[in-house]
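User: Here's a protein and a ligand (C2E). What would the complex look like?
Assistant: Let me lay out the input and then the predicted complex.
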Amino acid sequence: LYDELVLHYQPTFDLASGAVEGVEALLRWQHPQHGLLAPGVFIAAAEESGAIVGIGIWVLREACREAASWRDLCGTAPVVAVNVSARQLREEGFLADVSGALAASGLPAHAVRLELTESVLLEATETTRTNLAALGRLGVALAIDDFGADHSWIGMLKELAPDVLKIDRSFVADSGERERALLRGVLAFARELGLKVVAEGIETEEQLVAVRRLRCDAGQGFHLGRPMPADELRSLLQRDQRLPGVSLRLV
Ligand code: C2E
Ligand code: MG
Ligand code: MG
């Protein structure tokens, strides 16, 4: 049923050391007629029909299985980040799905980071809240994805108590005074809360320099590494897991 689904993997880099700190699993649909489809084309429909629940379990299990193989490739294994829809968190069985994927792969809970967007809270039910609390106890990390793209993020911080903020790429792309000031402000309170900050959508060397200057902890984007098939990611981890030296001269 799921054999047309594949995961691509995009690394996030620690901006101080240049090492891969995490790897995000990104879903693709290898469509027999239409070729490789990005999630933007089908995720919304899968959420509406409820198919995302089964797909989400497949993604969790596949990503954990793949991530277990990384431990042998590099000394310190990067965290595997998995995107989770609001719909999945409303399922009674979600916690069991996560612990099942951990058990099947042998990964410890802290090796997994679940990425949630604001819709998780907008569509939250009692079960969502029970699940979030239980996931925290289980020890998986929670990240807020596309942070700042929507409006009520302060409330989200209060309610979710996340470990990681992934700053929406609009803040990285716009290099105006105001955007930089906003980014500095977000970084200041992230530090205050002890959160790790990942800058999303780094597309140019200038943007990399800028987020490094601001002491963002980590970065993700086409300039650092595109989403890639599992075997390419594995050889990246094996070969040289650092950011290219050119990018390291700054700070
Ligand atoms: P996301 O979680 O924010 O993932 C990052 C998206 O930004 C990815 O798009 C990635 O290819 C893209 N990206 C990375 N670097 C850059 C850059 O430098 N510039 C630009 N313009 N884009 C960049 P992708 O793979 O098309 O995924 C889109 C969204 O689909 C994801 O956004 C996520 O919300 C959702 N998604 C992906 N996989 C899954 C999944 O397994 N389950 C669920 N529920 N949602 C998923
Ligand atoms: Mg994400
Ligand atoms: Mg994102």
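Summary: Strands lie at 5-14, 20-31, 35-37, 79-83, 112-116, 141-147, 164-167, 196-199, 218-219, 228-229.
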